[in-house]
Amino acid sequence: MNNDKRSSAGKARLLRIKLLLGLKKLISNTRVKKYQLKKRMTLGAKKAFGVFALQIKKVVLYSGVIKYLIKKFVVKIFKGLKRFVEYKREGTTFWGILKKFPTGVGAIISLAKKELQRSRKQASGHVARDEKAAIKEAKQAAKEFSAQEMLNSFNSAVDKEDYVVASVYLLRIEREHPDLLLDSKSIELVRKEIANANILTGYLQELKDNVMYGKQINWENINLRNKKSLDAKFSQARPKPKTPWRLLIVGHKHTSFIFLLPIIERLKCIPELELRTLDASVLITPPVPDREGVFPSYAQELIQWADVVFVEWATDISCWFVDQIPVSKKVVLRLHSYELLRKWPLLFDWGKIDKLICVSKPNLMRLTEVLDPETFGCKTHVLPNLFETNIYTKPKVGDVSKSLGLVGYGSQNKRPDLALDLLEMLLKHDESWRLHLIGSPPEVETEKEFFEEFFQRANTLSHQGKVTFTPWSDDLSTWLQNIGVILSCSDREGTHESCREGIASGCLGMIRNWPWVKKYGGNEELFPNSFRWESVSEAAEYLASLSSSQQFKERAEFEQNSFLEQERPDVLIEKFLEIVRP
Q: What is the rounded CA–CA span in Å between residue 133 and residue 117?
């Protein structure tokens, strides 16, 4: 009896839980539907107003035509009466005048036909123009609605101190609505979170929420697709690689090939390898959802030709491209750092990708904290960018021991303000210090206040000859000949290539322990022999401790030699081949 009571009580408790979950889901769905209804009503009202305005314009246009015809008809009547009087005076009989009447009526009918044809042609042109204008207005309205929704979501997340979600919205606003005005204090708080937190967690939560909202692109569907691709990959026997084996390198626009050029040049010298490249941006713009037949024939032929497809940058274009590759092909993807600020890495079909190369260990750790590609059979590797170090081993011009250098000052992420702080501290004890900045001017609207304050300080020092600005140049090796200390003050970096190039040129490396990597082991592996600092005062003390030019030169030479041994291009290209070889 007691067991029956317990069983019934358990069933009742289970029923209550199910009812509560069902009610929660109903409330959630109701909120979603309300939001969707509100959005549709707003856009629908704008569209309906546009259509109504078009109809009014048509009525006005045709009423003008009718008025014109009536006016012409009245004028013709008066002219007819005038001619009737003239014919009477000439002695023409009444029946004679009536015989001329059809000619006059025919002229009026002909005029009306011509006028209607003209008005129809004009009206169709007006309608086409107005429809274009209405579509443009609807798009603008949708853009304004989207901007307002993003702004509200951003402000709401800041108010709740949910800075990960706020970071997601800030990055989207900067990309899609750069003119939107945001509170500078909120931006500062969120930027710190972008450097410190893992933004992928915010995107992951968004994809999980999409399951509840019933959206097609959601975390459940992505995982199911990845597992399906993994099963298909293992169920198919891959053909044996040809001799020489064939490698296809895929990028997107010429800028994506920047870090690939040294690799490509070295791969061309390998006799047992055939190499081809493909710019995915010429295939289709904008990218379309995965469906058959989107590739032109020459791109399909290249993929069929290749034993291995190497895809550079884990971006949306790369994600779309991987979707088009059959599971029978070996695919290698390379991820840098800025992709980790977007949701793209979470959208890849990891079941199709055989190997992932990350340019630094902290970036791989950031990804695997949210998604482990090895779950879907994708092996992960860490390999820094390869560059030809001999290009940078040029002699320094004079004594450069008091010359600081920072590359890319036009981005807030590079923190040029910290470089100014360091210079000001050094100048208190030694007036011979100089700061050289090279790069493009700032362009991001949300960084406007930061750079107004920065240039106010920098221009004062520039007038004193302590700071110099140099426009961006592809010949960085020549600029580095005048630099003794290369600075890395950034909040976020993958490998900070300009610092690596600076150390290869014989500069002393002064590397900030970037907030981006602090929780993920720091950047010691990248710069094991450089001084790494947490605060500007630490950097200033270290530089002040190098009392003589000779001591500075010996330290810089040690760093340079250690780095050149660590980053030997021939060793790195062998490691690259070990990863990508079929």
A: 24
Residues of the chain with pLDDT under 70: 1-73, 76-78, 80, 84, 87-88, 90, 92-109, 111-112, 115-116, 119-120, 122-127, 130, 284-294
Cα–Cα distance measured from residue 47 to residue 133, given in angstroms and rounded to the nearest whole number: 11
Beta-bridged to residue 358, according to DSSP, are: 335, 382
Residue 344's identity, in one-letter code, is: W
Nearest to 354 by CA among 541, 14, 582: 582
CATH of 389-566, one of 3.40.120.10, 3.30.390.10, 3.40.50.2000, 3.30.590.10: 3.40.50.2000
Q: State the Cα–Cα distance between residues 122 and 137, nearest whole angstrom.
A: 22
The pTM assigned to this predicted structure is 0.75
CB 272 within 8 A of CB 245: yes
DSSP string, 259-286: TTHHHHHHHTT-TTEEEEEEEGGGT-SS
**Half-sphere exposure (Cβ direction) of 334: Cα atoms closer than 13 Å:** 25
Superfamily of domain 244-386+574-580: Glycogen Phosphorylase B; (3.40.50.2000)
Are the folds of 244-386+574-580 and 389-566 the same?
A: yes
> Quick one: 479 exposed, middle or buried, by C-beta within 10 A (0-12, 13-18, 19+)?
middle
Can you give the pLDDT at residue 146? Answer: 81
Neighbours of 425 (CB within 10 A): 17
Phi, psi of 179 (to 5 degrees): -85, -5
B/e letters for 432-456, b = 16+ CB within 10 Å, e = fewer, are ebbbbbbbeebeeebbeebbeebee
Which tens digit of pLDDT belongs to each residue from 137-165? 777 777 888 888 888 888 888 888 888 88
Pair 484, 402: CB distance under 8 Å? yes
Main-chain phi, psi angles of 532, to 5 degrees: -110, 130
Strand partners, 467: 435
* Positive/negative CA dihedral, 392, 250, 309, 368: positive
- The domain limits of the chain are 2-160, 244-386+574-580, 389-566
End-to-end CA distance of the chain: 69
